[in-house]
Amino acid sequence: MTHFEYIAVAISIILGLGVIQLLSSLDRVFAQPYRYWLHSAWILMLFWVLVQNWWAFWDLKDVAWNLGYFLFWVTYVSALYLTVLALTKTNLAEVSWEEVYFSRTRRFFGLFGFVVILAVLITWIMLDASLFHPYRYAQYSMLAIVAVLFASKRKRLHEVLSIVFIIIMMLSQVIFRLQPGLFENAV
Predict the structure, then answer these.
(1) Residue 110 to residues 145, 146, 172, Cα–Cα distance (Å)
(2) In whole angstroms, what is the distance from residue 46 CA to residue 29 CA?
(3) What is the DSSP letter of 30?
(4) What distance in Å separates the CA atoms of residue 173 and residue 55, rounded to the nearest whole number?
(5) Each residue of 24-73: pLDDT tens digit?
(6) Would you tell me how many other CB atoms lie within 10 Å of the CB of residue 93?
(7) SS3 for 104?
(8) What is the per-residue burial (b if ≥16 Cβ within 10 Å, else e) of 167-186?
(9) Which residue of 10, 83, 146, 180 is 20 to 30 Å from 54, comparing CA positions?
């Protein structure tokens, strides 16, 4: 077993916990009359992000792994898991997901911003990927949107910027991530 295969198991477990948490919350998230379309959109986006990160992990198959790199990735996927909890974990049986969404925007978008920053740093440090790679512009745009959403509670702004975020995320994935190995030939 290679270092990559060994480490991939640990990373997959944490990503899998995030997927399980999301899937186990879907009945509550989509239940009438409590659902909120914006909250639901972010839940679906988080599912995509978790799956896409498992796919993107392939970029690191040839990395000379060490404890620092491993802890870097464990921090990254753990922060992703915490973003899932920020939008899904609630003790209330009957809750308005709109209230949950707006009461947790700082926690959720703070964690999500941290995740985006770590994504940039991981590929820069571990793969020597340029900070000016075309994919970076999508990441920087998403980080800017997350920063605005972190700072604002304005409903209309959240609706518009969330749609823009989702479009940027999906387009960047279609353009850059249809095949694993985005940064295999990093310069």
Answers:
(1) 11, 8, 22
(2) 13
(3) T
(4) 11
(5) 988 888 877 778 999 999 999 999 999 989 888 888 888 999 999 999 99
(6) 7
(7) coil
(8) ebbeebbeeeeeeeebbeee
(9) 146
